């Protein structure tokens, strides 16, 4: 008597074998996948492609360049094959995690930030004032300190 677990395991094994056969078929017909990589690199680089007739009334081929979305998709496809799939993080969990991980600033940190702000404002004021001296000499000919 077969149980549900046995049926699931047999189905999973069948699906795995079927996917493996499909993978091998693709590898056999694309020079071990080299043609796929060459195509995706051409898309990434924005190469022109010639498509066969799109409509029976059209004669010849139509040159087409990949769109920016297609180029990004090709870059993503290639990067996932090189470095693996990036972990997916939901936007809501990232915002909540960032807010809960940072402790509130201490009094010393607040004083340091305030002092840094004052220094930045002083620098901006100095940069905004025009320097009338050239090489330490005022236009009147007097030496500046």
Task: Describe the protein in words.
The structure is a single chain. With 145 residues, the chain is mainly alpha-helical. Among the domains are: 1-30; 32-85, no CATH class. Helices cover 59% and strands 4% of the residues. It is built from 5 helices and 2 strands, in the order ααββααα. It has a two-stranded antiparallel ribbon. The radius of gyration is 32 Å and the shape is flat. The relative contact order is 0.05. The model has no long low-confidence stretch (mean pLDDT 75).
Q: What's the gist of this structure?
A:
The chain is mainly alpha-helical.
Keywords, please?
single chain, flat, mainly alpha, two-stranded antiparallel ribbon
Task: Summarize the topology.
Blueprint: H1 4-29, H2 34-44, E1 49-51, E2 62-64, H3 68-83, H4 91-101, H5 107-128
Antiparallel strand pairs: 1-2
Helix pairs in contact: 2-3
């Amino acid at each position: 008597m077969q149980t549900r677990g046995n049926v699931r395991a047999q189905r999973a094994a069948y699906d795995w074998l079927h996917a493996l056969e499909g993978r091998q078929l693709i590898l056999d017909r694309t020079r071990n996948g080299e043609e796929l990589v060459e195509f995706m690199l051409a898309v990434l680089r924005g190469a022109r492609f010639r498509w066969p007739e799109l409509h029976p009334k059209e004669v010849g081929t139509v040159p087409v360049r990949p769109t920016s979305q297609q180029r990004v998709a090709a870059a993503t496809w290639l990067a996932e094959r090189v470095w693996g799939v990036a972990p997916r993080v939901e936007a809501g969990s990232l915002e909540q995690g960032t807010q809960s991980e940072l402790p509130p600033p201490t009094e010393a940190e607040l004083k340091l930030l305030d002092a840094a702000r004052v220094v930045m404002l002083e620098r901006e004021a100095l940069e905004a004032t025009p320097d009338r001296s050239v090489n330490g000499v005022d236009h009147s000919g007097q030496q500046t300190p």
